[in-house]
Amino acid sequence: MKILFLSAEVAPFVKVGGLSQVMYFLPQALTKQGHDVRIFMPKYASIEDKQAEKRWRLKKEIEHLLVPIENSQIKSEAELENNSLKCNIKSYPKTRATVNTYFLENKEYYELRANTYGYKDDHIRFALLSKGCLEWLLLMRKLVNKKDKQGWFPDVIHCNDWHTGYFIELAKKSKRYKNIFAKVPIVFTIHNLLHQGNYDFRYGSNAKPDSGSTPLASLLSPQLQMQNSLLRGILYADAVNTVSPTYAVEILTSEYGVGLEEALQKVRGKLTGILNGLDIKEFNPETDPIIFRKYSISNSSSERRKNKLDLQRSFFLEENPDNPLLAVLGRLSQQKGWDLLLEVLPRILATRENVQLIILGSGDDRYRDRIHKLQNLYPNQVGLHLRSDFRLPRKIFSGVDSMLMPSTFEPGGIVALEALRYGAVPLVRRTGGLNDIISDFDPVTKKGNGFSFKKNNPWEFFASLIKALTIYKQTNVWEKLVRNCMSSNFSWKHSALSYESLYKNVLEGKRRSISITSHPAYKQLVEI
């Protein structure tokens, strides 16, 4: 299949959040399956900086691409010239680290901005990305029709998060585009339902909420910001998926649906969940140059103890490999379960003086202040690094006994996958991807790869933690649990196969739909 990904961020060119990592690993995994995969994204200023360092030598593909401001039918080239934004298309070739990637270049909306996100006109910036991609594909379609070797047109288009919802609606509804894309299924992945645009629809006016039924406003219209791009992507896509099966079910409820649960319930027939994978070559304790001592499953017991001592030394904790060492990693936010953590941890530290805790992350000041107070109360048991650090997590995974993840919601759960790979036993709340990744360890059968609790309740969390600390005392049993963790297989190959199956299903569904609607009997029925 020829597959096009449309995304606001793609590693290694731009790294902001988890989306960039998915856009790095999934296209490569699909390429290894034999598919022709390409990516379309904005050309941000940061990419230009790296290009100056001769990291990214971009090739000019198209100069002066005219992107229409209005969504109405364009009658002439002169009208297009006078009512458009001028862009360029550049590209970076397929390499060992990248697939063929195309960049939409525009000075005002991308190159003159220091950051990827966070501007009051983000809705315009990403509507421009969507329209720019549509215009580029129109040109590619013409080249394919002329049998020009430079032409390329996808069999499937895969859009990601709210930034690309505009593309889906325009491809399906606009007279300029819909005939060209009538046979091309569009898949829409929701990486986090909480992010619906730079207008917060949760707290906006309820007098006239966006239903997704009114026509999409033009690029520069103030009305565009009030139209929910994520909602519209959900409504018009041929298939919608989230980054874990459990999250796909959770978002149908008011607790997790962030105001879109009714819309999602209406389209639940096309909703599914596919768990993100992990790059097992990058995250590999046998070869990782960042960790203190490298190790495999066979020698994890002895080498992880040495890593543990190194961590204890680094965080000024008592150097004793027998002490249970816990860790919390990630944003200091309500989503990550910090209300539960700050209710349970003081009780554990007060009653179990040998328990040690490492906290890594940045975020909400109210949690930061309480964490500092916790360290002041238990200075010999708590080590802190309350700032972002992209190298330290792996050192922590390689030495701690357990990772605590009592999240209120967790679409994917990538930290749990990373922890498993290094043998740091996850203790999670059963939500989203965490529910799909972790199976409870049974000390009798010795099956399972972690511990869990269900309700967002401090006592359930406390009970699960006590259970983990109790099993930790049984050295042989705990070592078996660590081996179970390291044996868990969540490679991107599995995810790629699931997406491949999804693409095949939507292609077949589109083929059948076209076959039915083009049948004379169907046309007669419509006329009746």
Describe this structure in words.
There is one protein chain. The protein has 528 residues and is an alpha/beta fold. It folds into two domains: 2-277 and 497-523, 3-Layer(aba) Sandwich (Rossmann fold), CATH 3.40.50; 300-487, Rossmann fold (3-Layer(aba) Sandwich). Helix content is 40%, strand content 15%. The chain is built from 19 helices and 15 strands. A nine-stranded mixed beta sheet has the order 3-4-5-2-1-6-7-8-9, with helices on both faces. A six-stranded parallel beta sheet has the order 12-11-10-13-14-15, with helices on both faces. Helix 11 packs across helix 16 and helix 14 packs across helix 17 (475-487). It starts with a strand and ends with a helix. The mean pLDDT is 94.
Task: Describe the structure concisely.
With 528 residues, this protein is α/β, with parallel strands linked by helices. The protein contains 19 helices and 15 strands.
